[in-house]
Each structure stands twice: as C-alpha cells, then as structure tokens.
Design a protein that fits this description.
Length: about 120
C-alpha cells in the first residue's frame, strides 16, 4: 500500500508495480513502463527502492522473479543514464547504491522460496 506521504510520482510507480498481480507474466512493456516511472521519480529514489523491495519480500513466490526483473531493468538503465547525464543532480548510480544495501536480503528471500519448494517436493 502506498503511504499518504508518497509524492504523486512514487504513488504512480507503486500503483503500476502492484498492477503486476493482474497478469501471470510481466511483459517487457510493463517492465519498461515501471523503469520509466522509476526514473521519472528519480528525486524520490529511496521511496521507489523501498516499494520495490517490499514488493519482492512480501509478494507470493510466483511474482518474486518479476520484481527482480524490474530491479534489474532499473539498475541496467541507471548505468546508461549515468553516462548520458553528467551535469544533472541525478546520475542514476543512486538506484544501484540503494539496491546494494539490501541485495543480500532480497536474494535470501529467493533462496528461502526455493527451500520451501524443495520441502514440499520431498
């Protein structure tokens, strides 16, 4: 759930992110849209990262990989933004640095899901 103090750009990202539940698979266009919204909200990159991390950790296992696709797309795009925008206040590397803080915990979530699936199979 988007918080009341979220700026409109972040609220739009949040809404679009949770609309992923409407379909079983995420299309490339949906991931591109989320990436564009993330960079539209670059001023609030901490909020965007927070919402994406919460999505990945709280969603059902079927959507965790989709969240990782969005994270990957934002990080890859931030590398190209970094080289294009040397004069602006946002270089793109802020997203990568922010995701790095909790990347181990996010991947632990993926491993946990895999362990749970293995327990069911045995």
């Amino acid at each position: 759930m988007s918080t009341k103090q979220d700026p409109p750009e972040v609220a739009e990202f949040h809404k679009e992110l949770y609309s992923l539940f409407d379909s079983r698979t995420a299309s490339a266009s949906k991931i591109d849209r989320l990436t564009k919204l993330a960079f539209k909200s670059a001023k609030y990159y901490k909020n965007v990262v927070y919402h994406l991390e919460k999505f990945i950790t709280r969603c059902v296992p079927e959507y965790k990989l989709t969240g990782l696709y969005v994270l990957d797309s934002i990080c890859r795009t931030s590398q190209s933004v970094k080289t294009k925008s040397s004069s602006g206040s946002f270089s793109g590397s802020e997203y990568v640095a922010r995701f790095e803080k909790n990347i181990e915990a996010l991947f632990a979530e993926f491993c946990k899901v895999q362990e749970d699936k293995e327990k069911v199979c045995v």
